[in-house]
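A note from the maintainers: we've had questions about how concatenated examples are separated. There is no special marker in the raw files; a new sequence line simply starts the next protein. For clarity in this README we add a label.
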Amino acid sequence: MLRRILSYGLLAGLIAGGVLSLIVLTVQDAIPSGYSMAIGYLTMLVALSLVFLAIKRHRDRERGGVIRFWPAFGLGLGVSFVASVIYMLSWEMALAISGLDFADTYARAMIEAQRAKGASPEVLAKLAADMEVFKAQYANPLFRLPMTFIEIFPVGVLVSLLSAAILRNPRVLPARQE
């Protein structure tokens, strides 16, 4: 089962992290928009669909077509964990290669969004101070790495829950007889 966790997790992480890296390396200084967030989470869902495939393959090949919820959920969490680590490392690598100062870009985008909404100078000053704190925190890898990890891991938990709940029923997508 460890081999399945590592192989499916690595593949899922490479898909999600590869798309993330491609976006960072090609659109370096663009301000993130709702579309880029939607593309990012859609990519995560596509990549983490491998959780479902890993559980199904394990159920059909090693478990005789039957798997209980908790073993299926555990397998899904394992795949999600490995994928999240690969995603996190991909983000770090993309930042190092591109030289992108994500925290500064994000801070400027947040301030500009509030300015466009007509925020008062006091609100903008408070936000600017908060963004300076964020930039200092984000420069610390002990802050940045867990933040990147939790971008994708909760999605993996949800996919694992749904996959385990669906695939515990042996009548759902039964194994084909050879």
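[label: protein 2]
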Amino acid sequence: MSKKIIEDTSKFLSYVLRHEPQAIGLELDSEGWGDIDQLIEGAARDGRPLTRELIALVVEGNDKKRFALSADDQRIRAVQGHSNKAVQLQLEEKQPPAVLYHGTATRFMDSINEKGLIPGSRLHVHLSQDIDTARAVGQRYGKVVILQIDAQAMQAQGLKFYQAENGVWLTDQVPVSFIKAL
């Protein structure tokens, strides 16, 4: 299977499982799970040939572990990054490390300095446990700025943290007072 097909399929799955399942007539439950047969049928109507084998390759080979298959291999979901308000992952609150990181672009800094980190169209702000991951995320948007987040102080103030299956840390917002640009 070509790398391009796998990459294109991963982008397509991110789009429909995180943001627009209705674009192909896919129904997601409140935890973001969608039926694989319905996904394959909807993708075919959209002119995108999908097979169970290709889906499994994308799920298993995704270095960011963006997707999960159910234990019976009948359903699939994105593990985080949803903008679809119908999806409300039931994540357990967790104790974060003392410091987390967020990679962004310099062009967003005025807004961040004013409002802090907000989820925008997503349900949560995404944070990384290490600088390298934050840098890789930020590079997608332009000239990188790494933000250090005082997660310990945030939690002491009552703000909650969750961790997605792929290790990404999630929170509802990060107020300006907990952010330090590196």
